[in-house]
């Protein structure tokens, strides 16, 4: 079950239920239901890390939403669980335009 809520009023704008075993691709149908129920189309969408899929990002761009979705690396930084391994995937950033990865050394600087 997925819920869409309005951040100002805190009201539930939509409920989406599916038989899919994971939530990965459930943001678009949930947002579509929310748009049907709202008087105006939202400008920003905030969601959990699980929704950060290429198809979801394409949907958000196509529909004109500003997506606010953290990645797993950002979650680990916020939780203070940064991997010590310099070559861990969290230390790399993917550049979609160049189809390349670069290392993010700032994550490994300890104070």
Describe this entry's structure for a reader.
By secondary structure, this protein is of the alpha+beta class. The protein is 26% helix and 23% strand. It contains three helices and six strands; from the N terminus they run E-E-H-E-H-E-H-E-E. It has helices at residues 27-37, 54-63, 72-79; strands at residues 2-5, 12-16, 44-47, 66-69, 92-95, 100-103. The strands form three sheets. The chain has a two-stranded antiparallel ribbon. Strands 3-4 form a two-stranded parallel ribbon. The radius of gyration is 17 Å and the shape is elongated. The model is unreliable at 107-111 (pLDDT under 50).
Overall 3D shape? elongated
Count of β-strands: 6
How much of the residues is beta strand, in percent? 15-25%
- Largest sheet geometry: 2 strands, antiparallel
Q: Which structural class fits the helix and strand makeup?
A: alpha+beta
Q: What is the overall pLDDT average? A: 80
Which stretches are poorly predicted, pLDDT < 50 over at least 5 residues? 107-111
Number of helices: 3
Overall radius of gyration: 17 Å
Q: Strand order across the biggest sheet?
A: 1-2
The oligomeric status of these chains comes to single chain
* Element order: H for helix, E for strand: EEHEHEHEE
- Helix percent reads 25-40%
Q: Kindly, what is the distance between the CA atoms of the first and last residues, rounded to a whole number of angstroms?
A: 42 Å
